[in-house]
Amino acid sequence: MATEVLSFHTDNSLLAIQPPSPILHFMRRVILHVDMDAFYASVEQHDHPELRGKPVIVGAPPNQRGVVSAASYEARTYGVHSAMPSREAGRLCPNGIFVPPNMERYVEVSAQVFAIFERFTPTLEPLSLDEAFLDVTSVQRIFGDGPEIARKIRAAIEAETGLTASAGVAPNKFLAKIASDMNKPDGLTVVPIETRAIKEFLAPLPVGRLWGVGKVMRSAFERAGIRTIGDIQLMSESAMTKLTGKGSASFFKALADGIDDREVESSIREKSISRENTFDTDVEDRAEVEHVLSGLVEDVGRQLRTLGRYATVAQIKLRWQGFETLTRQKKLPVPVEDDFSLLTAARELFAKEKLIKPVRLIGFGVHGLTDQPAQQLALFEDARTSAKKHASVSRTIDAIRSKFGSGSIRRGMM
User: Fold this and answer.
1) Are residues 13 and 104 in the same domain?
2) Phi, psi of 278 (to 5 degrees)
3) Which of 201, 176, 187, 139 is nearest to 264 (CA)?
């Protein structure tokens, strides 16, 4: 058997390990994980050239309560990362440029990216707006081998959106996900296919790179002197069982050896859509909370229509001063996508709640998503007809706002 050779290439900063046989390579599963680079922040920098090369932070401003949704690579050098409190991000990066999230625009660009994916393979599994697994095993005769397909996808993304993406090419999902993160931004990493080389590829990586290893488990591993994936490879099954339990031991040992038999699940779609707003100061005025809730409902409705989905359940979320949180939900009479039906549901749910304390956060979401509108059953005909008319009006409003700006049509109070 030919020896695997680790090599570094200057083309797109590609880290590649030569497979021993093109025939063997073709017969094995070939999975890509494609991940947009600092997606939200990159969209803002693309749409606003004056932001390019600057530390852009998408999220609430630093003088308000809220968190970072995304940070450009320039901001990341200061230690800023997603889910960080905005105040902390402002402290770490005093010259950071904070911009509010524009979810409608991000969804639009995401649709472009996924349309590119679908040109190459129908077998893709979305993980979020900006990343997905693609199984390209069966399309290599058409588009070339895994690395070539990854290059073509990345080139198409850059040409059509002006953004960059990083990709991992591997025999399974776990390895592809690890690989896509190794050479960011605008990188391509190809994982070996031979068993020994896969273990060598994984061995130096920190144990926290394994799926399922969070802060608590990582601390437990480190207390036991386990710091790298290679350390787990050297452990016996019994020793691992004592540390993590029987079921987890087998799972972690398999991942440490690069074993992951899960298929790319092309049927996976968004299961829910939600929006939340954390107030700068806790709010006691019911009308103010209702007004913000209306905006959240419209954001959710707009994304539903962009994705071509219909909601069957609506939900509100309230967080009081002191972080006590409640959620309330209701099943909708028919699957809907229009703002009117969603606003009605949100209003009914909110009306049932007394503001027992000042409100810190209000949220609205939908789940039980489906691709199909209401069936034409006589029992629901009036609701179905009403939802259809309302959806048409909602789409017209979307088009007007898209052309003339979000402030061109203003909502009234609920």
Assistant:
1) yes
2) -100, 120
3) 176
Region 94-117: mean pLDDT is 93
Confidence check: pLDDT of 399 > 80: no
**20-44: buried (b, 16+ CB within 10 Å) or exposed (e) per residue?**
beeeebeeebbbbbbbbbbbbbbbb
Sign of the dihedral through C-alpha 26, 27, 28, 33: positive
- Pair 5, 23 in one domain: yes
Note whether residue 23 is domain-resident: yes
| Cα–Cα dist 31/292, whole Å | 42
Phi first, then psi, for residue 365 (nearest 5°) are: -150, 165
pLDDT in tens, 250-285: 888 999 999 999 999 876 666 788 898 888 788 999
Sequential DSSP letters for 371-389: SS-----GGGHHHHHHHHH
> CB of 33 within 8 A of CB of 168?
yes
Are residues 133 and 221 both part of a single domain? Answer: no
For residue 374, the enclosing domain spans: 272-404
**From 125, 131, 194, 337, active-site residue:** 131
Catalytic (active site) residue 265:
no
